Amino acid sequence: MDSSDGQVDWTTSVPGRTPASEPTRQRLTSAAAELIAEVGWGRVTTRAVAERAGLPHGAVSYHFRGKQELLVEAALRTFEHALPIAEFAALDTVDDLVGLIAAEVGDHDAIDPHLAALMMEAMREAGRDAVLRERLGGMLEAYRRVMVAVVQADQERGATLTGPSPQSIATVIAAVGDGLLLHALLDPGLDVGTAIEALHVMLRPEDERT
């Protein structure tokens, strides 16, 4: 089930499963995530997942209602770990927020191509699977919500552009971060720093822009 912060209680997402089964489910979803990134969503088989996880094939049908549920959970777990919601929630200013995005996107060596491939596959599949789309949407909403709180506090201090709502500014910041990540993956020579500086300038109050 979804919790209030967009996260999922994986131990109870399938009726009859208990916390004791979580280690096995984790092995299966980790293996499934690797295979999605390597061969694509539609080419993953439950037998290949079980082999990658070092488990009997029957473990898949015991812990999941089928291949699609397994792959959906694998994608959701990966997204949950990849979204730095807790890190963003601990920030105080919009400059800190944009700086964290810059650090994550600007470190080309830290960008995991397997993670990027899985995310691309999951985004494509979300167009066909309503459950996946709804759950991913909930996670992204939680991600933006913590950004909104930072933007709102900064606007109240007069340190960030006012006029646009905190929600709209947070959405733009998130979209810029995602877009820069995509461009950095495709163009490792991209100068992320100057793009981030431009964003900093655009977010400053008008009387502080140079």
What is the CATH domain class of the largest domain?
Mainly Alpha
Strand content: under 5%
User: Given the C-alpha coordinates, what overall shape results?
Assistant: elongated
| Uncertain stretches of 5 or more adjacent residues | none
The radius of gyration computed from the alpha-carbon positions, rounded to a whole number of angstroms, is 19 Å
What separation lies between the terminal Cα atoms? 49 Å
For the biggest sheet, the summary is:
none
Question: What is the overall pLDDT average?
Answer: 86
User: Helical content, roughly?
Assistant: 55-70%
Query: Which sequence of SSEs, written as H and E, runs from N to C?
Result: HHHHHHHHHH
By CATH, the topology of the largest domain is Tetracycline Repressor, domain 2
Any idea what the CATH architecture of the largest domain is?
Answer: Orthogonal Bundle
Number of helices: 10
Taken together, the total number of domains comes to: 2
CATH superfamily of the largest domain: Tetracycline Repressor, domain 2
Give a nutshell description of this structure:
The protein is mostly helical.
